[in-house]
Amino acid sequence: MRERVDFESACLIHHRVVGEQDAVVTVFSRRYGRLSLWVQGKLSQPGSIPLFKPMLISWRSKGSSHQLIKLEVDSAYPTLLKAELTSEYLFSAFYVNELIQHFLPELADSSSLYDDYLWYLESMAQRVFIEPVLRIFERQLLISSGWLNDLSVDLLTGEAIRADAYYIAVNHEHYGVGVTLLRAEPQTYHSAQVSNEIEATKTSQACRILGATLIAFNSNNLSNQVSLNEVKGLMRWFIRCLLNGKPLKSRSLFKSFKLTL
């Protein structure tokens, strides 16, 4: 990375105080993905850098250490700068930030995903139906971060998803990605190991999904409640698998307010 970066569009993801006048903040930036910055002075205090607002930030780097030196609002996003997220819209944004903290690589160009994130925040500011937008962002985050295979194809055969076939989720152990989908019929594959794994995985209904639902999901069309419920189960399975049992703090907010996003 360059020794100094100026006016990079970024959003605060996490703020951790480490002293009376010091903090470490995690930001999601357009060209550098997830980045941790050392902050001193007034900006180190909680609330001094607003959440869910695009900022233009400047920092200097020395080795693997990065220090924030300047911050101002990014006026290119007036809707977000004026918006105040509340209730379930606020909680869902906290959840998305936590996913970014877990899954987005550090110092990786994430321009497309950054646009997806701002789209998500704008959707929350407009108080749209949360679940379809949330599922789409979850998918984009995991694919962009390399944890999820393209959901439009069967990874092993390379064949396009068939509307009339069922597919199951499998973990990364043999397939070189975090999680992916394989067609649910073992006879589709030549490998006995793959066939046996599919038979074992089919006992978990949360991992099984109709091809037509996947096609709709890939087209960002989740207007059908049945399809939305299937996709919700699938994405929850993917995320639970990748977290390997580690709880998400934002989930406790959902439970406290009886939300089921």
UniProtKB/TrEMBL annotation:
What keywords are assigned to this protein?
DNA damage, DNA recombination, DNA repair
One GO cellular component assignment for this chain's record is: bacterial nucleoid
Query: What are the BP-aspect GO terms?
Result: DNA recombination; double-strand break repair
What Pfam families does the entry give? RecO_C
Q: Which Gene3D superfamilies match?
A: Nucleic acid-binding proteins, Recombination protein O, C-terminal domain
Q: Which InterPro entries match?
A: ARFGAP/RecO (IPR037278), NA-bd_OB-fold (IPR012340), RecO (IPR003717), RecO_C (IPR042242)
Role noted for this protein: Involved in DNA repair and RecF pathway recombination.
Q: Which family does it belong to?
A: Belongs to the RecO family.
Q: What is this protein called?
A: DNA repair protein RecO
Identify the gene encoding this protein: recO
